[in-house]
User: Fold Beta-glucosidase/6-phospho-beta-glucosidase/beta-galactosidase from Pseudoduganella flava.
Amino acid sequence: MFRGFIFATGIENSIPTIDHGRTRVDEMEKCGHYRYWKTDFDLVQELGIRALRYGPPLHRTWLGPGHYDWSFADEVFNDLHRRNLVTIVDLCHFGVPDWLGNFQNPAFPELFAEYAGAFARRYPWVQLYTPVNEMSICALFSALYGWWNEQLADDVAFVTALKHLVKGNVLAMRAILAAQPEALFVQSESSEYFHAENPSAIGPAEIRNARRFLSLDLNYARRVDSVMYEYLIDHGMTRDEYAFFMNNNLKHHCVMGNDYYQTNEHHVAHDGGTYACGEIFGYAVITRQYYDRYRLPVMHTETNLCQGPAGDEAVRWLRKEWANVLSVRNSGVPIVGFTWYSLTDQVDWDSALRFANGNVNALGLCDLERKLRPVGHAYRELIANWSEVLPTQSVCLQVPVLYPQDYDRARACDIGAADVLTLGGATAAPRNAD
Assistant:
């Protein structure tokens, strides 16, 4: 069983469409994963990483209602099982198959839940899931900024996308739990903050700082504040739809995943316009805000920085983020893991995937030729130095996670994850109060 702090990386599997649906941005294809997936898994193990954020390409796997092509998924997930890697399965990452259209489609939540349930039944040894990645960012970029998928830019479209994404996530969690009762959900979401540029910008900044919590409020059945409730109702959410979220509380199955990049903090002008301001508060301060709101175990689920012209910028960012993780831990927040995202360099994230320019972004632990970058060497060293230290600290909560081959043992003995942990002398993590 998995006893320690979770050091993770991920394979970038974003699949939004641009050009009004005419162009699919498939990061697995752009980054060469379909060709080099075995090498990628080798690299994960060589770095000493035991947990991988990973998901099959949704648009290639989910061909229609109840119609799936599991050929690639079978190949890679059987190999992950053989390697005994803990997998945090990322089922929907910024896009849907062409036949489903986009996130304005009201059929998405129920149909996606069927897909999630089918996946969980096919791979019963998988325990950790992120059903829908970064629901807030997906809704913003698709339906308020006009960049991806439906490419709309108004509040009604944003609320519509958001309610469909979060409902899809909630229903998917229920479907997964029906197939895998020991499932845990690491909800990767962007942790943001908006700073008022001047006194006249305080109002717009307060509205944006309230809106940043909407996806997680709905997902965790937490009542939104009065201003956000009016915003939701005024822009297309019905009272019954809101009641659905408040009446479906699966918080006790969840770990709150917080993503943080240099671009997560923003200055707000008096007219409500925003621009990136770089790191001001930092991960530790902002994560504490999210923890105080939801009181859930935390995992740092994404960060990166380009290697830069000096060659050490990413290494320095890794060390800074790790210092923030330790600060979160030392403040009493139960933090369970850290992730450098992703394993390899990415393509076209310099334009937020809005344009298919083919620009390689030096963000990975290794480059696209699968050669380790300095940050890859630094991350391997960090893991080796800290892996045996953190589990001795009481505020580093140990979640009841099985390795894939532990699941085989549990199934052979007809027992569950908590029983395997008890047999191994560990204590399962407490369920969180609602």
In short: Residues 6-423 form a domain with the TIM Barrel fold (CATH 3.20.20.80).
